[in-house]
UniProtKB/TrEMBL annotation, chain A:
Top-level taxon in the UniProt lineage: Bacteria
Cellular compartment(s): Cell inner membrane; Cell membrane
Record protein name field: ABC transporter permease
Similarity annotation: Belongs to the binding-protein-dependent transport system permease family.
Species: Streptantibioticus parmotrematis
Name of a matching Pfam family: BPD_transp_1
TM helices/strands, residue ranges: 61-88, 100-124, 130-151, 187-214, 234-255
Ranges for domain ABC transmembrane type-1: 65-255
PANTHER family, alphabetized: INNER MEMBRANE ABC TRANSPORTER PERMEASE PROTEIN YDCV
InterPro entries to which the protein is assigned, alphabetical: MetI-like, MetI-like_sf
From TrEMBL, chain B:
One Pfam family named in its UniProt record: TOBE_2
Entry protein name: ABC transporter ATP-binding protein
Signal peptide: none
Residue ranges constituting the ABC transporter domain according to the UniProt record: 3-234
Gene3D superfamilies listed in its UniProt record: P-loop containing nucleotide triphosphate hydrolases
Molecular function GO labels: ATP binding
Entry keyword set: ATP-binding, Nucleotide-binding, Transport
Highest rank taxon of the organism: Bacteria
TrEMBL record, chain C:
Identification of the protein by name: 2-aminoethylphosphonate ABC transporter permease subunit
Topology versus the membrane: Multi-pass membrane protein
Entries under NCBIfam families matching the protein: PhnU, PRK15050.1
Keyword annotations: Cell membrane, Membrane, Transmembrane, Transmembrane helix, Transport
High-level lineage: Bacteria, Bacillati, Actinomycetota, Actinomycetes, Kitasatosporales
PROSITE patterns, sorted: ABC_TM1
UniProt cross-references to InterPro entries, sorted A to Z: AminoethylPonate_ABC_perm-PhnU (IPR017636), MetI-like (IPR000515), MetI-like_sf (IPR035906)
Annotated PANTHER family: INNER MEMBRANE ABC TRANSPORTER PERMEASE PROTEIN YDCU-RELATED (PTHR42929:SF1), INNER MEMBRANE ABC TRANSPORTER PERMEASE PROTEIN YDCU-RELATED-RELATED (PTHR42929)
Originating species: Streptantibioticus parmotrematis
Cellular location(s): Cell membrane
Transmembrane segments: 20-43, 75-101, 113-136, 156-173, 213-237, 257-278
Length: 265, 352, 297
């Protein structure tokens, strides 16, 4: 190993913890604690309360959670369908064609989300495609942003897939469609669920494009969190943030359980 | 059903991996494609399965041109090196896969799956997942899966190379038994292992650098190889540069007696003698030299003798008292044990 | 068994859809929801409200101080945050990979979970920690009796930089940890046994091996920092305007769509150029999925 002295190793570990804890562990811990605090401007919160949650979960915010969940589920499913389809189709192309598909489907990652929001606003504010002011425009934006991730993760999984399985299936008499449904998609299931989970998480936390697009009747959770902190109600914001994090974690956990059951090797 | 390659060429980009390959496999025959890696033997097999499309030439199965037919319409069983069992399906579902793809009636499927598993000795493992099986068991399932569709042609691509030595020899026996049970099944067997090829095959096609070198029964190839490559790759051989003139063959100033050489004069030719046919001491075709190397191989000793700058290997029954390197020794071989090769460049190769 | 043969499967009429045709449905979806709107943005940017088509909006916007400040802010913040991420990410990954300590790997997995959380949560947390009425300043005023705490940087560009470093460092650590895993430990042991001290081993053996991963992680983080919106929005600073903030401000707050579109086009050009660079770096770094050439199809 790199460091042989015991002291040197301890120093390295200490430096690590000093850098790691305040930067990564502390922020989320602070949010969790703050969500239960009456007030906090000393070493410890002045008192504990669940008042912020009562505020957060009553009325508007509960609606925001529902909106976020519906948006995230719809967007990640659409993205999974489009992204996985595109990755599967691209996989069968020659090198050049695959390069074009890769470029097009990873482009949404490079374009600033705010611009994605703006472009949808510009494109769908007038008939025949009047989406502006409907939940549809928010879901569309999220789906566009998440599709790139679904495409990338399915592409990567396809590259790792052993072509021998599919060839043997074909030699046994399975048509290309049968090979796709009975062999390729089952083998891709872990990465498909993974992509769905990632898409869900990203959509739950999406703020940039949403800020450009959301209609008053369809305010997702991140927008409510911004609203609360902008009003100066930091603690309510923290409670909402905890709700957001907890929901995301729960769904990721559920997805990873499905995933474990779906991985065969 | 017969399989015929009619001048099949396959290339990847500018690289030709199979060059005008011609071979006819008779119905019910076991044909081994033997060659070093990169010789094109697997490509030839994949051309039969339909996984590669020949740049030119035709592949015929049972007299029918299948060159343009997609793999799933060829009705061929195949077992590959990695077995490629479907990891998400149980053993019985793996074996039933081909039957379901062909819409075989359910009761017949069940029956045929049971038959195939029984035949390969895997009936007890029907409800297992592939990951719960050992390498040898996975191998048997792969064979059962290929046989369940009752193919008339079975392709085996290095099926034993992932197994350890003991298991390999047991599976070799199994495969021989399977072929006795299914005498009509035509088998193409790709291997780089000459023992597998010699044990199992009715005929062996020797391949090197994308081309067919020679095709014949194992005995013919071993007794009278037609080329240096065959001689050294199948069984190992001493390849000695000799000169032929006036009906006599000379090697390093010694005149050699050969059986029915049918000689035409040539400055150089190659004499092929198997090391185990070379004896120690005086005899016909005696060659005198210095002992360069002694290797003890358990039941045998390999002696490498330097004869006028050429190395001659002799495998002799274990010597109680082997001579030390550096001592002068004489080796000999019987006239009927040598084969004269008159084509190809002269190289000195001694392989075990 | 082979006597009752299944033989070849009966040949049906083959559905002859060319391979590229399968790409059309997803391409149509992407085109409608992403490419077409993006093209409209470019079109808007050369179509002033007064009618006609010209580059007048570009002249106006690019000449304005607001835009130039925003561009400068964006670049300075992104570059500083990227530099910070690289240094911090390299250090942390180095410790996790080469100075083993209990729970180190688990910690790096925790970091992965953070990637699933939205970035603005970091700013929210920093507000509690270092905000004007936050914990650190509260401790300071309690201890010294001063009216105000010493920390008041969250609403400056440095607050944004700190938040971005915190959030984006894991994106540098991930490729680095993967690269370190591929690094032959025998190499390091050989170097150590030859008498090289740790800093020298890091400089001469580890760093050169890690450079491609650093380049890949760094360029990805640079693109994400350039595009970051949530962190900047949450600091609530009027003084810190970046290009994405400017797009938001012009479009939503001012209703100046052509102006917003001009800024958007500039922003897209910069980001896409960098992202192209990133993909070039990655495709050169990662071993191509070769070796299966013969088995590919």
């Amino acid at each position: 190993m790199l460091l042989h002295g015991k002291a040197a190793r301890l120093i390295a570990q200490a430096v690590f913890l000093v850098l790691f804890l305040p930067l990564f562990a502390l922020p989320f811990l602070v949010i969790v604690v703050a969500s239960f605090a009456t007030d906090w401007n000393g070493a410890l919160p002045s008192g504990l309360t669940v008042q912020h949650y009562r505020e957060a979960l009553g009325g508007d915010a509960a609606h925001a959670l529902t909106v976020s969940l519906l948006t995230a589920v719809a967007a990640s499913l659409v993205a999974l369908l489009v992204g996985a389809w595109a990755a599967l189709a691209a996989h069968r192309l020659r090198r050049a064609g695959r390069g074009v598909m890769d470029t097009l489907f990873t482009l949404p990652v490079a374009v600033p989300s705010v611009v994605v929001g703006l472009s949808l606003l510009v494109a769908f504010s007038k008939p025949p495609l009047l989406l502006n002011g409907t939940p549809g425009i928010v879901i569309t934006a999220h789906a566009v942003l998440v599709t790139a991730f679904a495409y990338q993760s399915v592409s990567a999984a396809l590259a790792r897939l052993d072509p021998a399985c599919e060839q043997i299936a074909a030699s046994l008499g399975a048509s290309p469609a049968r090979v796709l449904w009975r062999i390729r998609i089952p083998l891709l299931l872990p990465s498909l669920t993974g992509a769905a989970g990632l898409g869900f998480a990203l959509s739950m936390g999406e703020l940039s494009a949403t800020m450009m697009l959301y209609p008053p009747s369809w305010t997702p959770l991140p927008v409510s969190i911004f609203g609360a902190t902008d009003r100066g109600s930091l603690f309510t914001g923290a409670a909402l943030a905890v709700v957001l994090m907890a929901t995301t974690l729960l769904v990721l956990l559920a997805v990873s359980r499905v995933r474990n059951r779906a991985s065969y090797r | 059903m017969s399989v015929r390659f009619d001048r099949v060429s396959v290339s990847y980009g500018s690289q030709t991996v199979l060059d005008a390959f011609d071979l006819a496999v008779e119905p019910g025959e076991v044909m081994a494609l033997l060659g070093p890696s990169g010789s094109g033997k697997t490509t030839a097999l994949r051309a039969v399965a339909g996984f590669v499309t020949p740049a030119s030439g035709r592949v015929l199965i049972g007299g029918r041109d299948v060159t343009a037919l997609p793999p799933h319409k060829r009705g061929i069983g195949m077992v590959v090196q990695s077995y490629a069992l479907f990891p998400h399906l149980r053993v019985d579902a793996n074996v039933a896969f081909g039957l379901k793809a062909r819409r075989t009636p359910r009761h017949e499927t069940v029956e045929r799956v049971a038959r195939a598993l029984e035949m390969t000795g895997m009936a007890a493992y029907a409800r297992r997942y592939p990951r719960e099986l050992s390498g040898g068991q996975q191998q048997r399932v792969a064979i059962a899966r290929a046989l369940a569709i009752r193919p008339e042609v079975l392709l085996l691509d290095e099926p034993l190379s992932a197994l350890d030595a003991a298991l390999r020899s047991a599976m070799l026996t199994e495969l021989a038994r399977l072929h006795r049970e299914l005498p009509d099944l035509t088998i193409l067997y790709v291997t780089h292992d000459q023992i597998e090829a010699l044990t199992l095959a009715d005929r062996v096609a020797v391949m090197d650098s994308a081309r067919l070198k020679e095709c014949g029964t194992p005995l013919d190839l071993h007794r009278s190889p037609g080329s240096e490559f065959t001689a050294s790759f199948v069984g190992g051989a001493n390849l000695l540069p000799v000169s032929v003139s006036g009906g006599t063959v000379r090697f390093a100033d010694a005149e050699l007696q050969l059986v029915a050489p049918g000689l035409t004069d040539a400055d150089t030719a190659t004499l092929c003698v198997r090391p185990h046919r070379v004896g120690l001491g005086d005899g016909p075709n005696a060659l005198r030299g210095t002992l360069a190397e002694v290797q003890w191989r358990g039941a045998t000793h390999r002696l490498v003798v330097d004869v006028a700058g050429h190395r001659v290997a002799a495998d002799v029954t274990e010597l109680r008292d082997p001579p030390a390197p550096g001592t002068p020794v004489t080796v000999h071989f019987a006239p009927q044990d040598a084969v004269l090769l008159t084509s190809g460049p002269v190289r000195e190769v001694a392989r075990g | 068994m082979a006597s009752a043969t299944a033989g070849a499967v009966p040949t049906g009429r083959q559905l002859s859809v060319p391979r590229w045709a399968w790409t059309l449905p997803p391409l149509a979806a992407l085109g409608l929801a992403f490419l077409y709107p993006l093209a409209l943005v470019v079109w808007q940017s050369v179509s002033p409200d007064s009618g006609g088509h010209d580059l007048s909006a570009y002249g106006q916007v690019l000449g304005s101080t607001v835009f130039r400040e925003a561009l400068l802010n964006t670049v300075v913040i992104a570059a500083s945050a990227t530099a910070g991420c690289l240094v911090l990410g390299f250090t942390l990954a180095l410790v996790i990979a080469f100075v083993p300590f209990p729970g180190g790997r688990a910690l790096s997995r925790v970091v992965d979970v953070f990637l699933a959380f939205p970035s603005f949560l970091i700013t929210l947390a920093l507000l509690f920690l270092y905000g004007t009425t936050g914990i650190v300043n509260g401790l300071w005023t309690q201890a010294t009796g001063a009216a105000n705490g010493p920390l008041d940087f969250l609403q400056t560009p440095w607050g944004v930089v700190l938040a971005e470093i915190t959030y984006f460092t894991p994106f540098v650590m991930r490729p680095l940890l993967a690269a370190f895993e591929r690094l032959d430990t025998a190499q390091i042991e050989a170097a150590s046994s030859l008498g090289a001290r740790a800093p020298r081993v890091v400089g001469r053996v580890i760093l050169p091996e890690a450079l491609p991963a650093l380049a890949a992680g760094g360029s990805l983080v640079l693109v994400m920092c350039l595009n970051e919106f949530g962190i900047v929005l949450f600091t609530g600073a009027k003084g810190v305007t970046t290009l994405p903030m400017l797009v938001y401000g012009k479009a939503i707050l001012d209703g100046d769509y052509p102006g917003a579109c001009v800024v958007a086009v500039v922003s897209v050009v910069v980001s896409v150029a960098l992202h192209t660079l990133y993909r070039a770096v990655v495709s050169r770094t990662l071993p191509a999925s070769g070796g299966t050439r013969a088995a590919a199809r």
